[in-house]
Amino acid sequence: MGGGPHPAEPTPSRLGYPLPKMSMDARAWSRLRAWDPAIKRLNELGLGPLECALEISGQEARSGAWYGLEAGEYWLTGESREHGFRIGSYSYWEWWTTQLRAAIPERAWAQWAPFLRVAARGLDGGWGAGACAECLELWERWEPEIFESLHPEDLSNFERLWGEFRTGFELGAQGGALQIY
Question: Where are the chain's structural domains?
Answer without folding.
Answer: 23-180
